[in-house]
Amino acid sequence: MEIEYEKMTIEHCEAFLDIYNYYSINDFSVFSDIEIPTQGFKNLLQSIQNYPAFAIKFDKIIVGFCYLNPFAPSSVFNESAEASIYIHKDFIMKRIGRYALIKMEKEAISIGIKNLFVRIVSKNPYMSIRNKFGYIECARFKNVGKKFNDYFDIIWLQKEL
After folding, report:
1. Strand boundaries in the chain, DSSP class E
2. Is 66 in contact with 44 (CB distance < 8 Å)?
3. pLDDT number for residue 128
4. So what CATH class is 3-160?
């Protein structure tokens, strides 16, 4: 298995939207229940411009994305970040997400991040992977969202790097 990471740019827009929007309308993995447009991807790129962001390639095919984003919009939180990872539905359970999380942790350390957070939906079937890497649940907001006519919790996991 050969996984490569390529700096995420506007050229990745279509692939990113294909992956993200699939989960928007079919799964609990993302918080949205509608497809985001191209402008949404451009806004994302703008908001993470000072953080590591990668397209994930498996055998030269884009199979996912991973990036760090600010924990909060204040300089007092500069040593904390949130990691986001999205893997194409056909490549789930192939350990690509695990490698991406390890990559994000290394990238976070390299830019001085001391606390890494992951925000997930309680109904996300892939949430156990974070627990295997030493993340602890630090917050749970019960029944704060509703998707597919079903309520869900938002869970924040934290790891001190």
Report:
1. 3-7, 53-58, 61-70, 80-87, 115-121, 136-147, 150-160
2. no
3. 65
4. alpha beta
pLDDT digits (tens, 9 = 90+) for 58-88: 999 999 999 999 999 999 999 999 999 999 9
Q: Which residues 6+ apart lie within 8 Å of 16 measured at CB?
A: 8, 41, 55, 65, 86
Instruction: From 50, 54, 66, 62, select the one nearest 118 (Cα to Cα).
Output: 66
Question: What are the sequence ranges of the domains in the chain?
Answer: 3-160
Could you tell me if 81 and 108 are in contact, meaning their C-beta atoms sit under 8 angstroms apart?
A: yes
Instruction: Confirm whether pTM is higher than 0.85.
Output: yes
Residues in the chain: 161
Closest CA to 129 of 147, 151, 102: 102
